[in-house]
Every structure is written in C-alpha cells, then in structure tokens.
Here is the input.
Amino acid sequence: MIPYKTYIPAGKKGKSLSVPAREKVELLSGNEAIARGAFEAGVRVASAYPGTPSTEILENFARYPDVYAEWAPNEKVAVEVAHGASMAGVRSLAVMKHVGVNVAADPIFTASYTGVRGGFVIVTADDPELHSSQNEQDNRHYAVAAKIPMLEPSDSWEAKEFTKLAFALSETYDTPVFLRSTTRISHAKGAVRQGEVSESSLAPGFVRDPAKWVMLPDHARRRHVIVEERMRALTAFAEEFEGNRIEWGDRDLGVITAGVPYQYVREVFPDASVLKLGMIHPLPSGLIREFAAGVSRLVVVEELDPHIEMHVKALGVSAQGKEIIPIVGELSPGIVRKGITGQEVPVRSFEVLPGRPPNLCPGCPHRGLFFVLNKCKVTVAGDIGCYTLAALPPLKGMDTCVCMGASLGNAFGIEKALGKAALGKVAAVIGDSTFLHSGIAPLIDIVYNRGFTTVIILDNRTTAMTGAQENPSTGRTLMGEVTRRLDLAALCRAVGVDHVYTVNPHDMAQTEAVLKRELFREEPSVIITEAPCVLLPDHRRKKRPVYEVIPDLCTGCMACSRLGCPAIEWLPFTPDEAVAAGEKASRKGMARINPLLCDGCNQCPPLCKFQAILEKKD
Ligand SMILES: Cc1ncc(C[n+]2csc(CCOP(=O)(O)OP(=O)(O)O)c2C)c(N)n1
Here is the structure.
C-alpha cells in the first residue's frame, strides 16, 4: 500500500485541521507546494519550459539544495531530459503549462510504454478561463490517451502530498505519472506542512535493458501489453486510494467532483454528500457506483470537459453534468450554485470595474517595431510572447497568432499560397525564446523549400511574457550560472539564411529602412531587433532620460498617441479652457508624458513634427 496521509477538512470524518505546534506549517501557493513535494520526494533532476500558470514550480524547486533544475528550450526537450534521468535511476520532474503537453506529447506517449526507473512525474498546469493562454484545452484527455495515471489536487496541501505520492506510484507501477494543476490551485495559497526529505532507494546508474528502453515495434508491442496490465492494477489502486473519498452528508444531493471545483462545491453545499476524486485517471468505478446508489440526485461538477461525467454515464449511472454546469471557462461558487439550484449568481464586484486592456510596457522595444510594421502595411504572421499585445489597438500590428513557433510556417504558407504576389507583403514576427522553442525547424523549411519570407526575431534578452526567465540566448541558466550565449544571427546563417541583419527597434527610421529593403528581397532574410526588455534589472539600474511635451508647441494632433505608450496621456480641454488658454476652441486637448512612467526610449520624439517632445532637463 502506498503511504498517503489524507488531509480531511475539519468536520469530515472527524479529523481536525489543527496540527501539532512544533511542526512547521507554511502558507504556500500550489506551485510552491509542488516544488516542495518534489524536493521532499528526493527529486534530483527537473526540467521545464516556462508557461503560466506553471512557471513558479521550477523557479522554486531550483532554490533547494543539491538539486539540478533547468529551463529547456521547449517542453519536448524537458520531458526527454527528465525521462533520461529516470532511466538512470534518479527521480525526475518535467513541468509545463497545458499547451506544453502538445509539444511534448511525442516522448510522453512512448514514455508510457517504456515506463521508468527513478520516479518520473509530469506536471501539466491547465488554464481554464485562458487567463494567459491561447486555448483552454482539458489535459485530462492526455492521461486517457497516453494511458498514464493522473492525480489532481484541490489545494496546496494536496499539491505537496500528491506530488510525493506521484513519485511512489511511478516507481511502484513503472509508469510516468501526470500531476494536473489548474490556475486557481497553482496560484492560490494554502497551509502546507513541511515533511522529511526522502532518499530514493535506487542506486543511480543506467541498466542496459533494450526490451524496456528501445522501442522497436517488437519491443513496443510487448510493452503495450504491460501498459494495459498496469492500467488494470492502477484501477484497483484507485478504488482503495484515500485521495478518492466519499464524504457522506445529506443524501438528497450527491456531487462527484475533483480539483478546485471541490472547494466551490463544499462552499456552496456544505451539507451535501460528495465523492471527491484525487485520482482522475483511472477512475474508481466501484466507488462511483457505491456513491451513486447512496444519493437521490447525482451531479458531476468539473471544469471544462465532461471527463468524469462520461465515465459515470458509461457505467450506466444516471447523473447530471454539462447540461447544467458550463463546459466553457472556470467555475465559481456562484456558477456551481446556479447550475445545481437555478438560483441567480450575484454580480461580482470586479465585473463592474472598468476594463483595463493589457498593453506593452512604456519603453518596450517591441512597440517601435510594430509601429514600423504598421506603416509598411504588411500582413504579420505573429507568435506568442509579450509582443502579441501589439495585436491590440492602436498598434493593431499582428494578423495571426496560433501557437508557439507558428509565425514562420504561417507566413511561409501564406507566401506559397499567394506566390510572387506576396513579395513585400508578408512578415513573420517571433520572440527570442519562442524562436528557440519552435522557430528553428520552420526557418529551415523556408530555406530548404526556396522561400523568401522575412522573419523578424525580437531579441529582448529574456523570456519576458512569463516573468523574465533565462533562455539559451541570454547567457545564464535557471540556476544562475553564466553559460555560453547562443548567437541568434550565427544560428540563422548556419541553417542557410544569407541575409541576417540586426537593428535597434527604438530607432524606427533605421528599422523601417532595413524592413522595407528585406521585405522585397527574393530570398529568405532575418532581421533581429535587439534591445533589452525594460523590466530587466540591468536596464532598470541605468540612468535613462525622461521626455516631456512642451505645451506651447503641442497642437493636439495626437500623432504620438498612435504608439499606444501608457506614459503618453491625453489632457482633454473643455472649450472654455481652450479659449482661456488663448487657443482656438477647436483644439481638443494636448498630450502629456507621465514622468513616472516614461522610460526614455526616444520612440515618440521623432513622431512629433512640431518638435514638441523634448528631453526633460532636471
Ligand atoms: C507550448 C507553449 N509553451 C509555453 C507557453 C508560454 N509562453 C508563451 S510565449 C512564451 C515565451 C515568450 O518569450 P519571447 O518569445 O522571448 O517573447 P517576449 O515575451 O520576451 O517578448 C512563453 C513561455 C505557450 N504559450 N505555449
């Protein structure tokens, strides 16, 4: 039996929330708790590619002693590194956001066949409601499709305990294990009790075993049989697992739930009977039947797809699910109440606040490039990063955005569809981290298949969107070591691009000249825009100028506002004020630069043909 200390809220089965005073209890986010759980489980190697809501797991894990943690160039590599460490008998962790599993799916599906040596856990942090993602796919389907068990915690406490359990399960059943989190679990804080750090009983070393590790068809065929046996054994485990538990209460309503929706159900229906599932693949059919038989009305409450509901209904058990609980977006206590009782949800206070659309930071180098792209009237096949915000007004500088690395292939496809008519009219735009994640292969495609795509790599020296992580082109590792800095220009030349140019995107005249020339080149070309992210500590420490608008020179033409810089404000005049100021009543107001926001990037002064924007003198 695998040890798992169930955390049961006060009042349920009589255990209490209070803990002995001498034990160290901390308030940790779900991500911090997963990192702690991995450390306590004796994980020695962890690899990840950043992505909200998963990023803080590796950032926290890297701070523990005697561990190795790295940012991989992408999620597929992260899984392969962690799988390799497991082959060598060391407990290992791979971490990614939900869409990262798409990138890593190839090794994951076959790692399911090879199994593990050291415990191997893959964290998928899903993002219902798309707080920071391009879709809200439900990764529980991956567990089913790859035949890999999946645990899903409902709070930080479980996040740590389930992480530890996942490693024990992995070694006991010779399988990778998925740990699924969602944004509300990853980012909400809860009490976590520190535990002992355990050492793996395995001696590190690679033991030759081709039938297990070399997935030739003949070997893989035999491993598939083992996978099916394993799933049967895990199904039996799911029936006994304490993390799948029935909390009997009022039998008029019974709810089957898991993950964060468990919290909403408990908040709204404290007296109802609940079957709380901690293991969501494989599901415990016997427990579900027992629970269903004990309640009058059965409802399945789960976020996104009807994963549990379909299983319940396939058992021939009658239940309500997606006909009353939304399939789109996050749930909340109000939504759960409305679904089950029909009672209206009170308007939440944040729904009446004015909208604040996201924007590039003041001084962001990406802004200069997109202003120029806009002027050039090209179709911009875009990608994912801070620069995706340039798709919004007033820059409106991006026409497509699908997934990481898609910009180059999309631009090339548009060109192939339009032929010579596309010359000068299409560009691909991609950030440095995203290019290294999945932009190199499509660049090779462009060169190999005789394209003329203009590719723009936005090198801001960091992976800004997810909170400034290092990447191979920054010259530092996750653990803070100085390393060889990947030379983006040399890499592009090495795959066969003869025309590679570097520009400063704050210098919009230079950027425009190079862009106009390269767009019409009948060969592939790469333009690297090189300027640091304004949030990098080195940049923040630099003394930078501040600009101001000279009121007497500003005509209120609003040319500067087309940059969409948050530091440029608009001061509207009432007609009386305009007259009082000696202006014509038709002048509607004037621009003003907020000195607290201005980063001194110098993008706006050249836009003012009245030279009204000048460097502020102290
Ligand atoms: C497959 C996948 N993994 C991770 C992410 C999260 N993510 C989106 S963009 C990005 C990197 C952005 O860095 P970069 O390309 O350098 O652009 P910047 O934000 O610095 O402008 C990351 C990690 C994602 N959307 N999809």
About this structure: DSSP finds 21 helices and 22 strands in the chain.
